[in-house]
Amino acid sequence: MAAFWGCGFFGAQDTLLDDQLRHYFKECFIEGSIDFIFGDGRAWQAYSRVVFAYTYMPAIVASAGWDNWGQESRNSTVFYGEHGCRGDGANMAGRVAYARNLDDSQARPFLDASYIDGHEWLKPLDDALIAPVSA
């Protein structure tokens, strides 16, 4: 388990591997090109779950947003959600059909450290560090 506050991760392909146990990122900047945030079961695997919330997405983000790598059967098992994102790349008009534009109630479970049982292992200096994310 690891927590990162105010960190920068810069690279091209495979910039940030997030695949074992629980990780918490708050106010971090992550920049890359292909699969720059990836983990065990990677984003194109069946039953993967990825949620971007309150994220700045520049125009370089592909309008489709996601790619099933030719495996149509994955379209019904993956969970790709976006909530409150901004920037030219955050326009969901061109997203694949299985991408989800989450409303407040759908996004809420992902916006609190309790989603990763943070109350059990995050030891912040003050409670504000694990408070729910807001716009």
Automatic annotation (TrEMBL):
Q: In which pathway does it act?
A: Glycan metabolism; pectin degradation; 2-dehydro-3-deoxy-D-gluconate from pectin: step 1/5
Transmembrane residue ranges:
none
EC supergroup of this enzyme: hydrolase
Which branch of life, at top level? Eukaryota
Tell me yes or no: is Nucleus among this UniProt entry's keywords.
no
Reaction(s) catalyzed by this protein?
[(1->4)-alpha-D-galacturonosyl methyl ester](n) + n H2O = [(1->4)-alpha-D-galacturonosyl](n) + n methanol + n H(+)
Keywords for this protein: Aspartyl esterase, Hydrolase
Q: EC?
A: 3.1.1.11
Does the keyword Nucleotidyltransferase feature in the UniProt annotation?
no
Q: Which stretches make up the Pectinesterase catalytic domain?
A: 41-118
Q: Which residues form the active site?
A: D35
Set out the biological process GO terms recorded for this chain's protein. cell wall modification; pectin catabolic process
User: Which GO terms of the molecular function aspect are on file?
Assistant: pectinesterase activity
What family classification does the UniProt entry report for this protein? Belongs to the pectinesterase family.
- Protein name according to UniProt: Pectinesterase
Its taxonomic path starts at: Eukaryota, Viridiplantae, Streptophyta, Embryophyta, Tracheophyta
